[in-house]
Amino acid sequence: MITTYMPSMYWAGPRCFSSSLRWYDLRVIRHLEKMGWKVYYPLLLVKEEIDKNPGAKLLGRYGLIRTTCLGYIEKADIIVAYVGLFWDTGTAHELEYAVQLGKPILMWSDSSVYMVETLGRNLETSNPNEMFCKALPLNAMSVVCDRFVEVSELYNEGISPEELAKLIDRNAREILKNKK
Q1: 9: part of which helix (H) or strand (E)?
Q2: Cβ(23)–Cβ(161) below 8 Å
Q3: For residue 60, what are the CA distances in angstroms to 35, 47, 51, 135, 147?
Q4: How buried is 89 (Cβ within 10 angstroms: 0-12 exposed, 13-18 middle, 19+ buried)?
Q5: pLDDT digits (tens, 9 = 90+) for 83-120
């Protein structure tokens, strides 16, 4: 039996807590899976673990939510992290853990908010003629990505889940290729 390598990504960010954003992200993930990616989506992974271990402790250092997410970060080839207007401290913890493991990180945003430190290097924007520079609520310790992709048309003119999947696929593959 021949097995083929399937690259994997961990989908970080708090968008799973909003039903409309979750719906959109799951459509992006479906396209990524058709492109050959194994995508670890925390909300679904944690739900599976809760279903398998109904009495398990959920929160805390050894809680099911934390250990499940960290375990899949370890398994993933690359971390794809949403860091737009609605990002949270959970995402920051996921990214710091990925950094400690030496995992490559692709950050993306659905707004015209850029990390000042990324301007001029590894920045891809969906509308380069309208460059706005606003600081994310980050400090220098938080700028850990291998590449940052901005897709503000997500809420303006609209970018389809398929288009976002293609953008993430291309950038993630380039990062992984350059890491070898």
Answers
A1: strand 8-12
A2: no
A3: 36, 17, 19, 31, 31
A4: exposed
A5: 877 767 888 889 889 989 999 999 888 765 544 444 44
Q: Taking a C-beta distance cutoff of 8 angstroms, is the pair 81, 93 a contact? A: no
Tell me the pTM: 0.81
Q: In this structure, are residues 109 and 148 in contact, taking their beta carbons and an 8 Å threshold?
A: yes
Neighbours of 138 (CB within 10 A): 15
Query: Where along the chain do its domains lie?
Result: 8-179
- Interval 154-177: pLDDT, tens: 555 678 899 999 999 999 999 999
Least Cα distance to 179 among 104, 105, 74, 122 occurs for 104
End-to-end CA distance of the chain: 26
33-72 burial string, b = 16+ CB within 10 Å, else e? eebebebbbbbebbeebeeeeeeeeeeeeeebbbbbbbeb
Q: Give the side-chain half-sphere CA count within 13 A for 122.
A: 18
Q: For residue 132, what is the DSSP state? A: -
48/3 Cα distance (integer angstroms): 25
Tokens 């980050």 found at: 138
Q: What is the CATH number of domain 8-179?
A: 3.40.50.450
Annotate 109-124 with b (16+ C-beta within 10 A) or e (fewer). bbbbbbbebbeeebbe
